[in-house]
Request: fold
Amino acid sequence: MELTQALRTRRSIRKFEDKPVPEAMIREILRAAMSAPSAGNAQPWQFVVMTDPEKLAAAAAIHPHVKMAAQAPVGILVCGDLSLEKYPGYWVQDCSAAMQNLLLAAHGLGLGAVWTGVYPIEDRVRGFAGLARLPGHVVPLGFVPLGWPAQPGGEADRFREDRIHSNTF
Reply:
């Protein structure tokens, strides 16, 4: 898939087929996520891959917008490792770049995924930290249920000329 086509056709997928995702595909998706830019090249990310149906059901119970995780074959928790930061506070941007790469890689492989925000909502942060048994210096940014899409995708033109400003607002 050509890059700009992937950017325009990637959609949040919340319905999945009951079909496993090969480990090699998950590794390829994580390789793409770890190719993201980061402040000072610190790469302050950690990823928790969940395939256990009980863990995925528990994730669905933690977050009001993660109900689809109970039917997803895979969930990936994208986390920031504060002990790896070179520039404190930039982990959110770094992990967001990794998250976007992850979503695009999944789409490019024919999978569907949805970014569900965890950080900075404290009860979600605590819930996912507990579920994944994260050490105190690792903070969950977002959770991605993913699998083979059981809903249509499609392209949308979201370009907005009125959002572009030249030199000043």
